[in-house]
Amino acid sequence: MNVQTLxxxxxxxxxxxxxxxxxxxxxxxxxxxxLEDIIPIGIPTFIDYF
Length: 50
Hints:
The protein has 50 residues and is mainly α. Helix content is 48%, strand content 0%. It has three helices and no strands. The protein has helices at residues 3-10, 16-21, 29-38. The longest helix is centred in the C-terminal third of the chain and has 10 residues, at 29-38.
């Protein structure tokens, strides 16, 4: 996994299962399932107050 994939997951833009399907994330099914459970589901939001 690279930094772009990690940011995509943790900011909630794409789910780990999708990233595995498009071959951006590699690992066993248990690890991917754990990431699915840990990362909350929601709409990504970036608020900028400049």
